[in-house]
Queue: 4 jobs
Job 1
Amino acid sequence: MAKNKVKLSPEARRKALRRLLRYSRPLIPIAAGAFVLAGISIVAAHFIPVLVGNAIDLAVGKGNVDISGILGILTVIPILAIVSALFDWLVRLAGLRLGASVTRDIRADCIRKIEKLPLSYLDSHRTGDTLSRMIADVDRMSEGLVTGITELYSSALSIIVTLIFMIVINYKVALVVALLTPLSMLVAAFISKRTFSLFHEQSTLAARETAVIDESVSGGAVVKAYSRADAITADFDELTGDFDELNEEYRKTATRAVFYSSITNPSTRFVNSLVYCGVALAGGLMAVANPLVTAGQISTLLYYAHNYAKPFNELSDVIAELQSSLASAARVFELLDTPDEPAELPDAAAIDPAKVEGSVRADGVEFSYTDRPFMAGIDFDVKPGMRVAVVGPTGCGKTTLINLFMRFYETNAGTITVDGKDIRHITRDSLRASFGMVLQDTWLKSGTVRENIAMGKPDATDEEIEAAARASHAHSFIKRLPKGYDTPLSEDGGQLSQGQKQLLCITRVMLALPPMLILDEATSSIDTRTEIKIQKAFAELMRGRTSFIVAHRLNTIKNADMILVMKDGRIIERGTHDELMKADGFYAGLYGAQFKSAEGA
Ligand SMILES: Nc1ncnc2c1ncn2[C@@H]1O[C@H](COP(=O)(O)OP(=O)(O)O)[C@@H](O)[C@H]1O
Ligand SMILES: [Mg+2]
C-alpha cells in the first residue's frame, strides 16, 4: 500500500501517456477532425480583434468616418464568431465521445484482467483499492486526458496565433509581450509541480480510505447480522483507529493541495496584469514617437496582450489536470500489468470431472506466502470417497491447504496428486471443476434463484434444479420466496439469511455433483436449526464423494474417516475422532476446551 506513495517519474508519466493515447487509436479520424476544427475556430476567433481594430481606424482615421467600410466589417465579425463557436462545440462533442470510448475500453480490460488475476493479488489488495482503481481512477484519467489534451492544444495554438498576429501588426510590441510572459510560465510551472505531487498523494489516500470504509461497512454488516460482536469489534476498533489517522493525513494533504491550486489563479493573473500594463505603456510611447501606429492597432494589440496571457493561465490548470490524470492512469495500468496466473505447463491436460475417482495425495508439500517458511511436511493419502476433516486453531493453514488443492497458489516443494496425477499437469479449470466448494463467505451473483443454482451447470433443466434443491433442503424456503425459483437476488443476497445463502451454494454443488467436495467453515456463522438442515444436506452430498471438511465446531466432524490436526502449517496429529481422543494429545485438548465452553455458554 505504501508503494502507491511513490511519485511518478517523468519517464513513467510519458509511458502512461503513450499507453493512454493507444486507447484513443480507433478514434484517430475523429480526433484529427477535431484538431482541424479547433484550429479553424481559434484562428477565426483571433481574427475578430484585427477587424475591430480596422473598424476603429475607419472611424477615427483622418477625422472622417467610412460608414460602408465599417458596415462591411460588421457583417464579417458575426460570421467569424458563429463559425468559431460552432466548431468549438463540435470539438467538445468529439472530446466527450473520445473520453467515453476510452473509459469503456479500459474498464473492459480491467474486468477481463480481474478474471485472470491470481488469487494472491486479490488476497493482498483490499477490494476497495481495486474498485477505486477501476471506477474513480479510470474516470479521472479519461476525463483529464480529453479536457487536458484539447485545452493543451487550443491554449498552445492560441499562443502561436496571437504571437503571429502581433508580429504582423507591430513586432516591437510583440517583443515586449513575448519577453514578459515567461514570468507567467515560471510561476505556473512552480505551482503546478507542487500541486501535482499533492494531488497524487491525495488520490492515493482517498483510495486507502475507500478501502477502509469498504472493509468496515462489510464488517459492520457482519456485526449486525450475528451477535458475535466481541471478536469483530476489536478488529473494527483497529480499523476505525487506522481510519482516523488516514483521515487526518488526508485532511492535511488536501488542505495543502487546495492551498497551492488556490494561489495558481491569483498569482498568474497578477503577472498578466503586469504584461498588460507593459503593452499599454510601450504601445502608447510608440504611437507618440511614431505616428504610423494607429489607435486601432493599439486596441488590437491590447486585446491580444490581455488574451495572450489567458492560455498560460489555462496551461497551468491543464498541466495539473493532465498530471493528475496520468497519476490515475499509472494506477490503472499497474492493475492491468499485474502478472496473470502463471501459464499452464505445456503438457497440462484437462481431466474429465465426471470420471475423477477422487483419490488425493500430498507428498512433502511445502509452501509459504512470503519469504518466511510457513507450511512444510504435509503428507497424506486420501482414498476415493473418504471423509477428511481438517482442524486446528485459526491461522494454522487450513484454508491455505485448500488453496493449494485448487491451485489458487502453487506449492514451493512436494507434490499433490489427484487420481495419481500431479495437479500441476492438470489444467486449473478442469481441476477446479472437479471440486465442489462451499465456503464461509457465500457468493451469489445478481440474477434469479434459478440462475444462481444453475451456475455450475448452465444447461440444467428445471426438474434437475428442483431435485437438487430438495436434496439440499433448500426447496421449502425457495418455495416461500415471493416468486419462488424466479425471485431475483442481488449480489449480496440481501433478502436471504446467511443460512439460506449457504443452502443455495450447497444446492449449486448438489446440482453440479463434482466428484470431490470442500467445505471450508461452511457452517460457522449459522444458527443451530439451520445448521442441522445443512448438516443433513452435507451428509447427502458427501455420500460416495471424497470430501474435505474444515470445521470450527468439532462435534460436526466426529464421524470423519480421518481427521488431520494442524498447527503452525504442519500436520501434528491424525486419525479418527476416537483414536485422537484416546491419544489424549492436541486434538483431545481442543475438543475438551470446546466442550467445556459450549457447556458454560
Ligand atoms: N494471501 C496471503 N498472504 C500472506 N499471508 C497469508 C495469506 N493468506 C493467509 N495468510 C497467512 O497464512 C496463515 C494461514 O492462514 P489460513 O490458511 O487462512 O488459516 P486458517 O484457514 O487455518 O485459519 C495465517 O497466518 C495467515 O495470516
Ligand atoms: Mg480459513
Job 2
Amino acid sequence: MSHYAIMTDLNRCVGCLSCSVACKTVSNVPIGSFWIKVLRVGPNKCGDYQGKRPNIETYFLPMQCQHCKDPECVKVRPTEASHIAADGTIQIDKSKCIGCQFCVMAYPYNVRYLNEDERVVEKCTLCTQKTAQGELPQCVAQCGGRARFFGDLDEGIDNFECPANPTKQGKGVSYDDVHNARQKYSDIAKPYDASDVHHLPNVGNNPKFLYVLRGRTWQGKE
Ligand code: SF4
Ligand code: SF4
C-alpha cells in the first residue's frame, strides 16, 4: 500500500489561499465550506526584544484532512462509508453515507462537513482522481509559494514533488510542459533537520501530513 501525503514547507507558505481556492474550484466545494483552510498562527512572542525589532513571529498553516494512518473517522463509521483506500488515502463512499455526522464529531481537525444539499459528509480526497493518473493534487499544482509537495511517505519527503519553476523551463515551453514538469523537495529545500518536521496533534489517529518549520516555534502539540 502507498502512503500518499502532502508536506508543506511553512517557511515558503505566504498565506495566499491559492490552495484553498484551487481546491474549491476543482472539487466543486459548496460556498461557505472548504476542504482546505489556511490559518494564521500568531503573532506569538519570541526571543528577547533588544530594541532592534518586534519580538513576535507568525506563520500560516494550511489545514485539511490529514489522511491519517489510524483514522478516528473510520473507527466510528456506522455504515463503513469512510474507509482506507488502496493508495492509503481516506475516502468517503457517498452511496453509503447516511449523513449521521458521527465521523464529523470524531474527527480531530474540524475539516469534515455535511453537504446540506446532498446530505452526505465531504472532505479532501487528496485528489485521488488526479494522482491515479500521475498528476499532482490541485492544491500542490497551484500553490502560490511552491510550498506544497506531494509524495509517498515510504520514499521520504526529500522525494516529494511540486511543479517545476516555469521561468527555468526556457522559451517555447507549452503550458502542458510546465504543468507536467516537476521538481523534488530536495532540489529547492533550505536545510532542515528532524526537529523542524511536525505533524498536527496526534490523538491516536497518526496524521500523515507533514509541516516543515525552521527558525520559528511550532505552536501545536505533536
Ligand atoms: S488534495 Fe485535492 S481535494 Fe485535497 S485539499 Fe488539495 S486540492 Fe483539495
Ligand atoms: S497556496 Fe501555497 S503559499 Fe498559498 S496559502 Fe496555500 S500553501 Fe501557502
Job 3
Amino acid sequence: MKKIAKSNFGQLWRLIDQNYELFAPIEKEGKVDFGLWQDGEQVNLELTKTKVSPKGFIFPQSETYLKFKTQGKKLSMEVVSGKTDEYVLFGVRPCDAVSFTLLDNVFLKEPVDKFYQERRNKGIIVSLACNNPEETCFCSSFGIETHVPQKGADIAAWDMGETILWQPQTEKGQMLTDKLADILEIATEQDQAGLKKLQESIQDKVKELPLASVDPKKMAGDLKELFDAESWEELSKRCLGCGSCTYVCPTCHCYDIQDFDGGKCGERFRCWDSCMFSDFTLMAHGNPRTTQKERFRQRFMHKLVYYPNNNEGAFACVGCGRCIERCPVNMDIVKVINRIGGKR
Ligand code: SF4
Ligand code: SF4
C-alpha cells in the first residue's frame, strides 16, 4: 500500500496530467462536479457525492457516431471514433465504481458497443471510500461496502485527513502507481492501523444510516404478480415523467439515436434517453407504453427484476440515493421497494 500527503496534491495532479487527461470532482463557484482538471483548478474530495454520477465519462450524454455531407448527388460519410485519449477518473465513490461494472454487463456483452469499450479501456478509475456517507445513501443494501475496495476501480484510496492511502487493484492501477513512484511513499504500519480504525468508523456510520434496512430482495417473487401489483397505480400517480431520476442515475443507460440534418451536412449521434419520457421508444405505429404507470413500472421492474434475472442476481441500482435527492415529487426506488416488495 502507498500513500501521498495532501500537501503534494498539486504535484500529483500535474504528474497525472502529463500522461493522461485528468477528471476529478472540481469545485467552481460553490458547486462540485466531475470535470477536466487544469492547472489552478480546485479538486474537492470532501463532498460525498456529486449531483450527477460520473457515468458520462464512459457513456457520454451525447456522442457523435458519424458525420455525413452531400455534394451534388454524392454522399460521403466519416465514422467518428470514440474517445482516443487515455484518462484518469479520480475520486469516484465506490458505488459509482460498481455502477461501471453494471454498465459493462450491458455494453460489453455481444454485440460489443465499440464506443463504450474504447472509453472503458482508456480510463483508469481511482475510487475513494466514503468517510461520511449521507442520509440518502443505501449502497450496503446492494452488498456494496464503501470502506473496502470494490469492483470497478483500478485503484482504491482512502482519505486519512493529511494523507491519502492508495492501493492498486488492477494492472492499469499498478501502471499508474508505477508512473507516480516518485511522489508516492510506502504506507507505514501506523498508516495501516489508522486505516483499520477509519474502516471501522465507516462501517458503524453505514449501519446507522436511515435507509440501511432497505432490502431489494423483497422484489423477488412471481414476475406476473410483481408486474400486476396494484400499487403501481398509486406510486406512479405523482410522477411527472421529467426524467431527472434517470439522468442523475449511474446505472440508467437508455439512449436514443438521432440524425441531425444540417442541409448539405449532418451528424448521427446517440444521446441519453429516459424510459420515463412519453416519447420513449416511440415508433411509427405508436408507443408501446401509453401511460405513465407503464413507463414508471418499466424503470423499476428493469432495475429490480429484469436486470437481476439476466445478470446473475445483480440489481441495476447501487443505492447512491441521487434519485431520492433529485425527484421533484419525492418518489424514488426506496418507496417502490418498500411498497411493491412489501404488501404490493
Ligand atoms: S436508482 Fe437511484 S439510488 Fe439506485 S443507482 Fe439510480 S440514482 Fe442511485
Ligand atoms: S424524477 Fe420523480 S417525477 Fe421525475 S421521472 Fe423520476 S420519479 Fe418521475
Job 4
Amino acid sequence: MADSPSSAHGDQALLLPCHECDLICEVTIRHDGQWRYCPRCQHPLMRPAQDDQLTPALAFTALLLLTLSLLFPYLGFEKSGIERAISITDAAQELAVYHHPALAVIVLATIVVIPALYLLSVCWIHMSLASPRPLPGSLFLARWLPRMQPWMMADVFAIAALVSLIKIIAMAHIQLLSAFWTFSGFALILLITVTRMNTIGLWQRLLGDLQQPPQARAGKTAQALGLIGCEWCGQLQPLGQSHHCHHCHSPLHERHPFSLQRVWALLITAILCCIPAHLFPIMITTSLGKTEPSTIIAGVMLFIRHGDWPIAVIIFTASVLVPFGKILALSWLCVASRQQQALDMNSQMKLYRLTEWIGRWSMIDVFVVAIIVALFQMGNILTVMPGMGGVAFSAVVIFTMLAAHQFDPRLIWDQQQQLPPTLEPEHQP
Ligand SMILES: [Zn+2]
Ligand SMILES: [Zn+2]
C-alpha cells in the first residue's frame, strides 16, 4: 500500500471514496475553512478542519445545559385557578402513565438519552486524543457517532414546544420556565457540535493517515477499480479481502446488502402503520365529563376553524405531507434505480437527500402531544390523554427513517455506464 499522495503545493492530498456515488475523489487538506465536495454528486466529502478544543468545550456546555434542563421546570401554566409546572421528563412520564411506554421511550431516547450519549462520546474521544495513550472504548464510540446523529431530535422538540405554546396560549396563562431556555440553548449548541464534527479527520487523528491502495485513482469508481470504500472512515481497500474495514473495523459493503428489498419491506410496514395512525385518535381530551377523541386530520381541521393557519400548515406538512411524500419519493427512487435508461441522477440525489433530511421533522406532532398531555392533567376540569394514533404515527416516522437509511444512493449512479472525463482531477476547476 502507498502512503497518501501530496499535491504540488505540499498540501496533503487524499483519495477518498464518495459514499453516495462511489467515485474516488482527490481531496486536498487545507486549513482554509472550505468544505470539499464530490465533483460527481456534490456530496460533502470532508468538513473544514476545526479548532479541536472548541468542539469538546461545546459538547461539555451542551451536556451541562441538558443536565440543568432535566433538573428545573420547563413550562408552567395557570387555568381556572389551578397552577401546574412540567419538566422535560414529565413529557415522557405522563405517556408511560397512560400505558404508552413505547412512546415514552421514543421521546426520552430522542431528546435526552441519545444526545447525551453523543455528547459524552465526543468529550471522551477528545480526552482520548489529548492523552498519551488512547482511552478504552474511544474507537467503539467513534464508530457510533455518525450512527447516533439522525436519531437526535432535541431541535425538533424545541420547535414542537413553540407549536404547543401557540396551540394552548388562548386556553391558559403560559409561563416559559428556566429549563425552557436551557433546553433551547442545549438544542442549539448540540446542532453546532454536530456540524463541527469531521469524521474523516477524527479517524485520522485516532488511527493515523489513511493508506492508499496502489490501484486507487481519482475519477474512477471504487467498484470499477476492484476497490471498496469504507463509509465511515474513508479507507479504500481491495474488494473481497475482508468484511470489515482494516482501518476502523466497521462493516464493509460494496453496496448495502438487499438494499431495495429492505427499503420495500420497511415502506410497506410504514404504509400499514399509516392506517391506525390516521384512524385512531392521537389524543383524547376530557373536559367537564365530556370526552373528545382527536385524530391528526381532526386536529388540523380544528386549527383551520380557529383561524390558526400557520400551525395548521405546520402540522399538516409534518404529519401528512412529509410521511406520505417520503413514502412516494423512496418508492420512486427504488423503481428509478432499477431502470437502465438515462435519468436525471442529480434530481434523484436531491430527492434522496431531502427525504433523508426531512424525516425526523415529522416527530413534531408526537412531541406536541407529549407536551400537551404533560401539561393538561387537571382532573375533571381538563385532562388530555395520548391515543393509539400517536404510537402508530411514531412507527410511521421510524420506519420511513429506517427505509431512507437502508437505501443505497450508489445504486442511482450504477446506471451510469461511462463516467465523464471531466471527473478526472486534471479536468476539475
Ligand atoms: Zn459523489
Ligand atoms: Zn473504515
